[in-house]
Amino acid sequence: MTTDVSRSARTGEAGEEIAASAASDVQLALTAAREVAATLAATSPAQRRDWLIAVADAAQAATEQLVAVADQETGLGEARLSAEVAGMAGQTRFYTDVAAEGSWLGATLDPQTDTAPALGRVQMPLGPVAVFGASNFPFRFGTLGNDTSSAIAAGCPVIVKAHPAHPLTARLLGEIATGALRDAGAPEGTFAQLVGFEAGTALVAAPEIEAVAFTGSQRGGMALWEIANQRQRVIPVYAEMGTVNPVVVTRGGAGARLAEIASGFVGSFTLGMGQFCTKPGLLLAPSGSDAAAVVGQALESAAPQGWMLTEQIGHSAVAGIAELVDAGAQVVAQTPAAESGWTSPATVLRVEAADLIRGEERLLEECFGPVALVVEYADDAERDAVLAALQGSLAAAVMPAGADDPEVPALVGALAGQVGRVTVGDWPTGVAFAWAQQHGGPWPATSIPSATSVGAAALDRFTRPVTFQSTPDAALPPALQAANPWGIPRRVGGRLESPSPEGGPA
Amino acid sequence: MTTDVSRSARTGEAGEEIAASAASDVQLALTAAREVAATLAATSPAQRRDWLIAVADAAQAATEQLVAVADQETGLGEARLSAEVAGMAGQTRFYTDVAAEGSWLGATLDPQTDTAPALGRVQMPLGPVAVFGASNFPFRFGTLGNDTSSAIAAGCPVIVKAHPAHPLTARLLGEIATGALRDAGAPEGTFAQLVGFEAGTALVAAPEIEAVAFTGSQRGGMALWEIANQRQRVIPVYAEMGTVNPVVVTRGGAGARLAEIASGFVGSFTLGMGQFCTKPGLLLAPSGSDAAAVVGQALESAAPQGWMLTEQIGHSAVAGIAELVDAGAQVVAQTPAAESGWTSPATVLRVEAADLIRGEERLLEECFGPVALVVEYADDAERDAVLAALQGSLAAAVMPAGADDPEVPALVGALAGQVGRVTVGDWPTGVAFAWAQQHGGPWPATSIPSATSVGAAALDRFTRPVTFQSTPDAALPPALQAANPWGIPRRVGGRLESPSPEGGPA
Are strands B490-492 and B346-351 parallel, antiparallel or unpaired? Predict the structure, then answer.
């Protein structure tokens, strides 16, 4: 069985070994989650809010310890990691607010008519969810964070497969969550964490599991998706995978502020050493702007320093640069990598529009790390042809001269067909947690493009609608009962009804 | 290439042959749908309402002709088919109302704050949808009906693969739709219909197609799902497949009104000769109630008469009865099949709870046609074990003594975990189109259990959320513009806002 080993990103040095979960421990966790699922589903969102806020508070109280462990394993630095703990706690509280507000339940009541029976429809929790966090956000997409918080807020037990890139961080987070949930009164089985590759594949295949949330590489996501598709009862795999996240500089933008854009682009694609799923990996600029050289100069003056999260990610980034060159890209600028630990040089490459348009595969795929391509487009047709050659992405950005740049509307419209989020004038790297956030994009950016792993709709992934026909009030779930005990917005007879400020029905 | 042949269900006689679409015609339809997709997506739901109402009106105006053709091909009878044309037209109008109301767009605006950019999120149409209708509802789930209407209402072009069980009905519906859409001003490419197996598989594999809606057998649904999963860019396949739809008679129900329940059960499972996806295929009754014999008597006095939709469906039903017997079921009652055409005897079989609990596969699977199993349960534990052994279903029914039967709440709760719709005291066969309807259930009843093919949420299948960050108003889709030009409900800063009655923003 695979043992996780904690390693320092800065030196590569091996530390503590964490034993893989035994098959019997996997089964114990699955059984506990299955057994508690109905209990959890029957709790109110307000009750689950108390539990999750306890987890957020406990994690924040342990910030110093968490950051120390995570910094050793990830090399991401204290400032970033401290902010990430706070962000994780804030997200968790946000999901509990979303859950308590209740719109996500989609409660809909059609009273009986002469020709139709009484119907009530509501989103019900799916049951046990397997969470596979990411290496690059140990707190916001790790043992805790978006997936775990939104699944529990939605009323589903969670079993996490600890990420091998930061096993001690995962273990500490697991201990904090387990303790806080127990102290807050959450039932046994609400949360568990397992270790090791075998435990992860066993989870996805297990009949007790109802959904999978994954953030990571396309290879990893596809592997889990294939296991899930071979189950007797197929379950959804919400996998966030590779994504290029193109940036388009308009003619006006290039004319007015190319140096500023280049500097912003470098800041965005080298943030966290390019280890963001929202890293912009390709800049399209009008021909004659000499954008590749301008971006290259910006990289050289920024000279970003940092470490890669794992040895494999470092190797893949270095290999990726070589593959891009083999596929026809030219290195424009490269800054030296750190001298120890897991590293990759930050690199800007120039690529020909024609090579992208004819579908040169390696040039069209993500290169995870501080690596970006710059391409020049001769005219709108060539720009659109390059965009059409790209795969779906999580995000895309338009960099105009200003808000009234006449090229913006058409570009926003075109990009909206290819990504989950379009930004104008903003870099895509930051992902605010908010009601209106979408973090998911067309295949292969995510496996289920109608879903999001950040924002209010993150809860929706872990529910399924059920309609109750001619069902007595006492047998209805609370969200559909006449008294509206949870005080949630509902649609009754086709009309939206908001609850009164007192919390009862309007 | 496969040629569709129109055949009389009542006599088996072959009529007109309909040539399969040539590969070049398939590509023409795909290209037209792809080219019109952005135009369609940019139209308002109100504009699409006009087109779809024109289709509904034209179909209703042709009711006599449609029913004559469909009755010849399906043997379903004029009364049922006339009602179905009206139902299809009513559904179509309903989807246009849902689309125009606008909640389905999920328009959400988070204004800019000190720490977060302005975000706006909205559901956008996916693009061209391939529709594979069912044999059993030529109007409500055919060339037109739930899938086609909800997809166009959502702003997606539709390409239908004509059902080979009723090719002339399909052709006539296609002609009506094409003419009505053209006359109403819908752009070329909004709707097309293709003929033949090869055209169907080509559609699912085609890069132009963004989603598939299918209603039919598990074999057919899985085949399309597998093609879609092997695409370079995987797309969602919304397949409604096999389903058993269990009915549980409570002890009180058996004591108070078993004969009435048995008679209702026979009416429900032989409706349309059992060719409903919501046919109740298994009745669970308390032991000692002698329910199998009572249901058998009810079948004999009902003596249902009718035809099967196709030769294959008739053969499968007859073979299914034999397979059920081989797997341990005993025939309790059987009424004679029609003497000509495609037929199956209506049949009640008795099965032991133990055989279901130990997972005897054939007994746990749907037998499409006028065939049902009756099982007796000794106690709650055995009842629950039988229910747990079943696969997911579209629907389940509880048959209690009355609304205050104390067994109802727990049973409703248990069944809600296994199906998409629970009815109490009602038979599951009828599926009202309404805001609160859910027609979809856990795998394998449907491939995407979070979706529905009937009810307001049917539109959601054909959309994907996109978030617009820091985007100027003029570049936003209408649903997110400050003036709220479509007058739809929106969430702004986390609060739901209903439009004023005049249609402008509140």
Answer: unpaired
Chain-centre distance for alpha carbon A332? 31
Report chain A residues whose CB lies below 8 A from the CB of B404: 472
Nearest-angstrom CA–CA distance, B34 and B352: 54
Q: Are A354 and A380 in contact (CB under 8 A)?
A: no
Question: For an interface test with B, which of A408, A450, A454 has the most B Cβ atoms less than 10 Å from its Cβ?
Answer: A450
Give the number of C-alpha atoms closer than 13 A to the C-alpha of residue A430, restricted to the C-beta side: 19
pLDDT band at B500 (very low <50, low <70, confident <90, very high): low
Model pLDDT for residues A317-351, shown as the tens digit of each residue: 999 999 999 999 999 999 999 889 999 999 999 99
DSSP sequence for B305-343: ----SSHHHHHHHHHHHHHHHHTT-EEEEEEPPPSSSS-
User: Is the link from the previous residue into A444 a cis peptide, with omega within 30 of 0?
Assistant: yes
- Looking at the DSSP assignment, which residues form a beta bridge with residue A372? A348
Alpha-carbon gap, residue A120 to A255, rounded angstroms: 57
**Could you give the CA distance from residue A351 to residue B7 in angstroms, rounded to a whole number?**
60
What residues are paired with B399 via a beta bridge? B249
Q: Which residue type occupies B87?
A: G
pLDDT at B506 (0 to 100): 38
Q: Which of A277, A360, A366, A382 is catalytic?
A: A277
**What is the pairing mode between strands B14-18 and B4-7?**
antiparallel
**CB neighbour list of residue A226: distance below 8 Å, 6 or more residues apart:** none
Could you read off the pLDDT of B11-56 as tens digits, one per residue? 999 999 999 999 999 999 999 999 999 999 999 999 999 999 999 9
Pairing between strand B129-132 and B211-215?
parallel
pLDDT (tens digit per residue) in B219-244: 999 999 999 999 999 999 999 998 99
Of A470, A475, A496, the CB nearest to B498: A496
Question: Per residue in B426-477, pLDDT tens?
Answer: 999 999 999 999 999 999 999 999 999 999 999 999 999 999 999 999 999 9
Q: Which residues of A touch B413 (CB under 8 A)?
A: 38, 475
The answer to whether residues A420 and B465 touch, using CB atoms and an 8 Å cutoff, is yes
Instruction: Tell me the H-state helices in A270-403.
Output: 291-302, 311-326, 353-357, 361-364, 380-389
State the average pLDDT for chain A.
96
User: Minimal CA–CA distance to A145: which of A72, A85, A103, A211?
Assistant: A85
Dump pLDDT digits (tens) for A59-98.
999 999 999 999 999 999 999 999 999 999 999 999 999 9
Per residue in A424-478, pLDDT tens?
999 999 999 999 999 999 999 999 999 999 999 999 999 999 999 999 999 999 9
Query: In sequence order, which residues have a C-beta less than 8 Å from that of residue A284 and are 6 or more positions away?
Result: A246, A247, A248, A249, A375, A376, A377, A383, A386, A387
Mean pLDDT across B289-298: 98
What ipTM does this complex have? Answer: 0.97
Cβ-based neighbours of B448, under 8 Å, separated by 6 or more = A236, B236, B237, B238, B239, B440, B461
Of A271, A263, A418, A282, which is closest to residue A352 (Cα–Cα)? Answer: A282
SS3 of A464-484: EEEEEECCCHHHCCHHHCCCC
Determine whether the interchain pair A236/B450 forms a contact, defined as Cβ–Cβ distance below 8 Å.
yes
SS3 (DSSP) at B122 = strand
**d(C-alpha B306, C-alpha B339), whole Å:** 10
CB contact under 8 A, A434 and B101: no
- With residues binned 3-state (H G I as helix, E B as strand, rest as coil), the percentages for chain A, rounded to 5, are 40, 20, 40
Mean pLDDT over each residue of chain B, to the nearest integer: 96
The answer to whether residue B477 neighbours chain A at the CB level (below 8 Å) is yes
The answer to whether residues A466 and A121 touch, using CB atoms and an 8 Å cutoff, is yes
